Amino acid sequence: EDFDKVFDLPYHLLDVDHYFRNLNIGGDRWLGAIYSRGCPYRCTFCIISAYGSNIGTMRYHTLDHVMNDLRVLSGKYGADAISIHDDHFLIDQSRVVEFCEMVIESGIKIDFRANGRIDSIYRMEEKVLKLLRKAGFVNLIAGIETGSPRYLEVMNKKLSLDQIAVADRKLTEYGFYKHWNFMSAMPGETMEDVGHTIWLIAQLAKTCMTSSYPMSYRKYIPLPGTEMYRQ
Predict the structure, then answer these.
(1) Residue 89, C-beta contacts closer than 8 angstroms, at least 6 positions apart
(2) Does 53 score more than 70 pLDDT?
(3) How far is the C-alpha of 179 from the C-alpha of 181, rounded, in Å?
(4) H-run or E-run covering 201
(5) Residue 54: which pLDDT band, with cuts at 50, 70 and 90?
(6) What does DSSP say about strands 81-84 and 59-60: parallel, antiparallel, or unpaired?
(7) Pairwise CA distance, residues 19 & 31, whole Å
């Protein structure tokens, strides 16, 4: 599908009131939206790893579409907060900067939360973090999955514990609510691996006291076609 245009999504087909949430982290009327597709990473548990490069290639809606969608959701339906459910909203920092600048210039007052990766937050410059806060971002979400250095390699996360510590410190410094995702019961995971994860969760909990939903710790579910499913 060609994304190089403005879509007027048919929200009138839904009873939008059924989809509002109150997340206790900003606005009272949260709705979800997706403004890009795909992820270039190949984590062995993720469904994207089961598909070819066409799925892994990032595809972006135009920012004109994004701004039109925000005006519709806020103006017509009364949303005061948006959860951006992109697989990796933070991957392109230049696009993030342009997005924030357009939101600020538009005068739209919306709180945002978005998914990203630890390494993107780790690399994020101070000016970008400040711009995200100015544009209304209150919550950033990332999958850590495990505290075991060995199992981070098994999952092909391409992350280190040092990067996790720096990313957490940055979000603390700039006043973001946090949400870190973890998993357990993966194939080949040992009790020692689990111990590393519980230790890391305990360390991060010390800096997440003000976050309403700082952690999720879920049982791994094998997704057909992924490397870990075959294991």
Answers:
(1) 35, 36, 96, 114, 115, 116
(2) no
(3) 7
(4) helix 191-205
(5) low
(6) unpaired
(7) 6
DSSP letter for 180, please. E
Q: CA-to-CA distance for 118 and 180, rounded, in angstroms?
A: 9
Nearest residue to 181 via CA among 218, 207, 150: 218
Element (H, E) at 229: helix 227-230
> Which residues, at least 6 apart from 140, have a Cβ–Cβ distance to it below 8 Å?
90, 113, 114, 116, 121, 132, 171, 176, 177, 178, 179
**Tokens found for residue 80:** 């005061």
DSSP per position, 135-173: HTEEEEEEEEE-S-HHHHHHTT----HHHHHHHHHHHHH
Neighbours of 175 (CB within 10 A): 10
Q: What is the DSSP letter of 76?
A: I
Mean pLDDT over 89-100 rounds to 96
